[in-house]
């Protein structure tokens, strides 16, 4: 049984470097860093007070007018996903219900909703602290202690009836399916930093086997929440020493890396069967050629120093794409800047790619963007697709002094114009031990 | 040629027990698990009862290895217990020299329960001024308390993908490892996607199913605010009454159900006992509203139709339907409508039951537990009842196998799961034929 070919025809990203793929790409080419002091709330009680925050944007600019009332039941993760979905669809030239409702369809007939799928990676969404803490604070005994009795009897009514639905991880995909009328298979994958790659990989398989013709897929998450930053503080993953020097705080694979910088954002991309894309004369960015997924069997809460999980994912993707490591022209590792996770990743890439890493260009966006969990992989995927499409490797900022074990060859000083036939992007999850890798290639008939 | 996928092992951790055969006996006997909540003091909540897992101790499942998982959340511990049972049931605990890179995990796993008391302590501290009077949240004050009282391990183990990681470490599974959380449809979706991972050739064995516990203060709060839960506090045992006219919400349950899915030739080569074959899967989105199911049941119809067609079957081949059947007004009405819409005149002739009447709603884990009962129905030629069915509803006019189990040859069974936000997933099982 031969599988259908799958191509990438749309890129939609919402990132701290800007809204939309061109803004991200331009920001990377211009070596911008989006990291700075946290502005959205007062972080002075936390040891890491830096983040990469999204620029101001309004979801109402990206949805039909009749959907605006739903904004109040969306956590920020959902807002990011819905925004990205519009950008991706618009970029692809497809027409969905969203564009019809916004009077942007022109003469183009909408895509068949029963063949339009959705697969989104999501994180553990934090409840709005102001709302939840404020409600909890109404159920306090005379001695100042929280009381379950008061909460159950009355306090909980301070939460809006739909409160739970703001924070269910599948609500990213649900709002996206509603806005675009995507009725084909829809899934939500929650595997930390590996989520986006796993979601794109699964959407790839869904189209390969014929269960959908088009999929909106990727991931979105914000780590820019007091609870998320408190958690990462407890886990010792944040860089807490460089609050005064934000532009050099995120050091992917750096010799002096001291931890990750939290971020927010996401990306959704349009995968499409080749036949469907050709029939409508779509612009094809690249072909998706391979997917591999794996897990560490050593530990779910500590990175494996051998990087075996990431190695297996890369090897499986190479086999799936029926290619070999010598033919890869660009690699996109994660590089959170966390000492032990980066060490694990270096070991895994070295084991999978060997000396080819010294000749192949590499790119990481962590120095510019920090880590936004389940949404990171999709931003990286989109950047990698752009890099292949434009035959240009942007500079990976803050990679001029690398860990000794690291063989990645990041572009320094200026972007490098080089022919890129195939590229690998891979993402390991912080917790859980999951890894996933995707291979894209230049489209040829 | 398509690789065939069979079930070779099953494990359960449920409110009716932690052993597949004894849970099955109790389901056939119509035993109902719901009782006053004991996980926390719920006496003042609108709903003060639930369907809890009792007498669960991971040591009973993992022996000494349980110590390696002492930080595991309640839902991860349930999953580990159910996997341990399924793993040995499948005979995988023997020295088989498995290719561990081809053994994967696909769970519909819920978040670990929030560390509620510590969270509430920090929340209250953050909402007080210097004089201790109520004040708007001050993130600085909150952060000071949060970093002091929250525990790193309890926070980490809430991550959705930790259960899959614990399982990979305990059972040496280095293959694809994925967690889906499509609300109440999650474990049915997990099994359907695991089926395709094996069919495609990305793995030979998938440990698949679901685990969840939302019986904690914020879980119950969320569902109570949605008015989704039954408030029949004076009669917990009869509160879950799917398809009954007097139903008034679901009963929150917890637990895990795990199946070992295996490529047929792999199973045969090692002489595994084959319990049933997974032949069809359908997944759709309503794309309608986050709160309501599409009024025509279009997503449910499409999921069932896709599943049946992908199995190479027709509606005439389905002998039994394990319903999502939550006992909410809307679900049971529209699920009935969807079954009617697809099966037409045959709908009234197909026995349909909801074991949620006895176990409550295990949320992400529900579909996997229900699928296990479909395997047993095929094996034993008997289908479980819908308990607490007393008052027929004009909107629910099909054969729900009321209150007593029914002997019936089941060659093909269909299992439905529908989730908040319009997630619809259906699986089809068939008796294995060589």
Structure overview:
The complex is a heterodimer of chains A (445) and B (434). Chain A has 445 residues and is an alpha/beta fold. Chain A is globular and about 70 Å long. Chain A has 13 helices and 16 strands. The model of chain A has no long low-confidence stretch (mean pLDDT 97). Chain B has 2 domains: 5-113 and 158-430, 3-Layer(aba) Sandwich (Peroxisomal Thiolase, Chain A, domain 1), CATH 3.40.47.10; 116-150, no CATH class. Chain B is built from 14 helices and 14 strands. Chains A and B meet through helix 4, helix 5, helix 6, strand 6 and helix 7 of A and helix 4, helix 5, helix 6, helix 7 and strand 5 of B.
Sum up the structure in keywords.
heterodimer; A: 445 residues; alpha/beta; Peroxisomal Thiolase, Chain A, domain 1; 2 domains; 12-stranded mixed β-sheet; 13 helices; globular; B: 434 residues; 10-stranded mixed β-sheet; two-stranded antiparallel ribbon
Question: Helix and strand string of chain A, N-terminal first?
Answer: EEHEEHHEHHHEHEHEHEHEHEHHEEEEE
**Rg of chain A to the nearest angstrom?**
21 Å
Number of strands of chain A: 16
Q: Could you report the average pLDDT of chain B, rounded to the nearest whole number?
A: 97
User: CATH homologous superfamily of the largest domain in chain A - what is it?
Assistant: Thiolase/Chalcone synthase
CATH topology of the largest domain in chain B: the name is Peroxisomal Thiolase, Chain A, domain 1
What assembly state would you assign to the polypeptide chains in this entry? heterodimer
Let me know the largest β-sheet of chain B: 10 strands, mixed
Termini of chain B, distance in Å?
Answer: 15 Å
Report the count of strand segments of chain B. 14
- The CATH class of the largest domain in chain B is identified as Alpha Beta
Query: Helix count of chain B?
Result: 14
The coarse overall form of chain A would be globular
The percentage of residues in β strands of chain B lies in 15-25%
CATH classification class of the largest domain in chain A? Alpha Beta
């Amino acid at each position: 049984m031969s599988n259908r070919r799958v191509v990438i025809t749309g890129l939609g990203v919402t990132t701290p470097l800007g809204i939309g793929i061109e803004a991200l790409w331009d920001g990377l080419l211009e070596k911008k860093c989006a990291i700075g002091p946290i502005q959205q709330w007062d972080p002075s009680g936390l040891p890491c007070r830096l983040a990469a925050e999204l620029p101001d944007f309004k979801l109402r600019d990206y949805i039909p007018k009749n959907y605006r009332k739903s904004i109040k039941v969306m956590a920020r993760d959902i807002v990011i996903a819905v925004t990205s979905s519009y950008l991706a669809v618009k970029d692809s030239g497809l027409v969905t219900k969203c564009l019809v409702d916004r009077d942007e369809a022109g003469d183009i007939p909408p895509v068949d909703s029963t063949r339009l799928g959705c697969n989104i990676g999501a994180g553990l969404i934090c409840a709005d602290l102001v709302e939840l803490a404020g409600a909890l604070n109404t159920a306090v005994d005379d001695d100042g202690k929280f009381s379950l009795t008061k909460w159950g009897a009355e306090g909980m009514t301070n939460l809006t009836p739909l409160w739970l639905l703001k924070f269910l991880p599948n609500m990213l995909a649900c709002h996206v399916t509603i806005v675009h009328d995507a009725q084909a298979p829809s899934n939500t994958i929650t595997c930390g930093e590996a989520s986006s790659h796993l979601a794109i990989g699964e959407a790839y398989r869904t189209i390969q086997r014929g269960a959908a013709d088009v999929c909106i897929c990727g991931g979105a998450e914000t780590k820019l929440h007091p609870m998320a930053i408190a958690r990462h503080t407890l886990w010792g993953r944040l860089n807490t020493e460089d609050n005064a020097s934000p532009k050099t705080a995120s050091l992917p694979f750096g010799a002096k890396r001291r931890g990750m910088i939290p971020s927010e954002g996401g990306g959704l991309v349009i995968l499409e069967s080749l036949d469907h894309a050709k029939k409508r004369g779509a612009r094809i960015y690249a072909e998706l050629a391979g997917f591999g997924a794996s897990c560490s069997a050593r530990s779910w809460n500590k990175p494996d120093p051998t990087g075996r999980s990431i190695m297996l994912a890369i090897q499986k993707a190479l086999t799936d794409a029926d290619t070999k490591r010598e033919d890869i022209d660009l690699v996109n590792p994660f590089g959170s800047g966390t000492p032990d996770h980066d060490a694990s990743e270096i070991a895994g890439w070295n084991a999978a790619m060997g000396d080819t890493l010294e000749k192949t260009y590499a790119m990481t966006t962590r120095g510019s963007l920090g880590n936004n969990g389940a949404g990171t992989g999709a931003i990286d995927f989109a950047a990698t697709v752009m890099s292949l499409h434009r035959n240009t490797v942007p500079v990976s900022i803050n990679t001029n002094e690398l860990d000794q074990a690291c063989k990645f060859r990041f572009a320094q000083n200026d972007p490098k114009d080089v022919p890129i036939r195939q590229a690998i992007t891979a993402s390991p999850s912080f917790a859980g031990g999951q890894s996933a890798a995707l291979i894209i290639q230049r489209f040829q008939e | 040629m398509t690789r065939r996928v069979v079930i070779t092992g099953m494990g359960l951790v449920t409110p009716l027990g932690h052993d597949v055969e004894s849970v099955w006996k109790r389901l056939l006997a119509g035993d109902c698990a719901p009782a006053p909540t004991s996980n926390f003091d719920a006496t003042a909540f609108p709903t003060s009862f639930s369907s809890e897992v009792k007498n669960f101790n991971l040591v009973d499942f993992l022996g000494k290895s349980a110590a390696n998982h002492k930080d595991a959340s309640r839902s991860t511990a349930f999953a580990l217990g159910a996997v341990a049972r399924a793993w040995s049931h499948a005979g995988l605990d023997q020295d088989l020299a498995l290719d561990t890179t081809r053994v994967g995990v696909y769970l519909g796993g819920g978040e670990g329960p929030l560390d509620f008391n510590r969270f509430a302590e920090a929340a209250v501290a953050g909402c007080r001024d210097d004089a201790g009077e109520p004040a708007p949240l001050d993130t600085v004050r909150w952060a000071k308390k949060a970093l002091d009282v929250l525990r790193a391990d309890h926070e980490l183990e809430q991550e959705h993908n930790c259960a899959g990681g614990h399982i990979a470490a305990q059972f040496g599974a280095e293959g694809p490892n994925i967690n889906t959380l499509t609300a109440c449809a999650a474990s049915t979706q997990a099994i359907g996607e695991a089926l395709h991972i094996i069919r495609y050739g990305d793995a030979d064995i998938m440990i698949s199913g679901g685990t969840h516990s939302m019986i904690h203060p914020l879980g119950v709060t969320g569902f109570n605010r949605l008015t989704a839960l039954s408030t029949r506090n004076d009669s917990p045992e009869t509160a879950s009454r799917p398809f009954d006219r007097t139903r008034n919400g679901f009963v929150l349950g917890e637990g895990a159900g795990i199946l070992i899915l295996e490529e047929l030739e792999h199973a045969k080569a090692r002489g595994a006992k084959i319990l049933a074959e997974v032949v069809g899967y359908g997944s759709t989105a309503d794309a309608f509203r986050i709160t309501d199911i599409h009024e025509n049941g279009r997503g449910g119809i499409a999921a069932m139709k896709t599943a049946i067609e992908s199995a190479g079957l027709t509606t005439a081949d389905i002998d039994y339907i394990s319903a999502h059947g939550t006992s909410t007004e809307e679900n049971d009405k529209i699920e009935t409508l969807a079954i009617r819409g697809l099966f037409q005149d045959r709908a009234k002739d197909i026995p349909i039951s909801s074991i949620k009447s006895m176990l409550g709603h295990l949320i992400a884990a529900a579909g996997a537990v229900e699928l296990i009962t479909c395997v047993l129905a095929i094996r034993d030629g008997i289908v479980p009842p819908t308990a607490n069915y007393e008052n027929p509803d004009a909107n629910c006019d099909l054969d729900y196998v009321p209150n007593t189990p029914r002997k019936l040859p089941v060659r093909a069974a269909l299992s439905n799961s529908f989730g908040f936000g319009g997630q619809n997933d259906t699986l089809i099982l068939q008796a294995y034929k060589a």
